[in-house]
Each structure stands twice: as C-alpha cells, then as structure tokens.
Amino acid sequence: MIERTLVLVKPDGVRRGLVGEVISRFERKGLKLVALKILRMSREKAMDFYSVHADKPFYKDLVEFITSGPIVAMVLEGDSAISVVRQMIGPTDGRKAPPGTIRGDFALSIQENVVHASDSPESFERESKIIFSPEDYVA
User: I need a labelling partner for 129 at 20 to 30 A (CA). Which of 7, 39, 82, 90 fits?
Assistant: First the structure.
C-alpha cells in the first residue's frame, strides 16, 4: 500500500552534515521525496508537534532540542513507507539501534538521535500539517 511519512533531520543531524546521507538512504531504498524544506521550528510549533508527550518528563527537553537549530523536514512516499522508514531509522535510543540503521550508524543518545519519523498514518497526518502546506507537495 502506498503511504506517505514525515521525516525530520533533527538539529544534531543538520549540524553534523548528515542531511544528504539521510536523504540518499531513503532514495536508494526506493522512496520518493514529495516535499522538502529546511526551517527553524518555532517553540509554538514544537509544542504542538510534541503535544502527544506533553505529560511526560522529557517533553520540555524535546521542545528545547528541536528548536535549538535548523531542521530538514521531508515527506517520503512509497509502499508501506511508514514501517519501511521506521525500520531504516532504528530504535529511538541510538545506543541500542543496530548498525546499518540511521540511528545505529550515527546516534549515541536518545535525544540526539539524528532523525524523527512518523510512527502511524495518524501521526503523519497530524505532524505533517504542522510543517507543510498542501502547496509544498510536488506530487
């Protein structure tokens, strides 16, 4: 089933020059890039983006980190894109992510783990609307 998913290269990934590597891994897998932008997420948007975690102790840290520098946001499209991307990025904790995954190859913590990816069609719908407008899509 053809799906779309949102991926963010977080401030640590942008700072470390990993944007091209991340995008090329997804493209080599066969996923199609249908929207792309670089931005600095506002505090308000970050609070909305991470609102599902608002009652958790790490919420403030998530908001602080994602607003600490530029991010690169993209929408990828392909067969089972959500689960394929989640497999490619690996578990949240980069220290536990297997080699060959984006986090396994480039992350050493839970917070600075290079990328975010939507975990469900509902998350994609909610998250993507915070960052992209319908006119941002090329296909």
Answer: 90
**Using one digit for the tens of pLDDT, what is the confidence trace for 52-103?**
999 999 999 999 999 999 999 999 999 999 999 999 999 999 999 999 999 9
Is 53 an annotated catalytic residue?
no
Which residue among the candidates 25, 84, 116, 117 is catalytic per the annotation?
116
How many domains does the structure of the chain reveal? Answer: 1
- pLDDT digit string (tens) for 7-32? 999 999 999 999 999 999 999 999 99
Give residue 28's domain range. 2-136
d(CA 108, CA 105): 9
pTM: 0.96
CA dist 11 to 38, 48, 70, 130, Å?
Answer: 11, 18, 6, 17
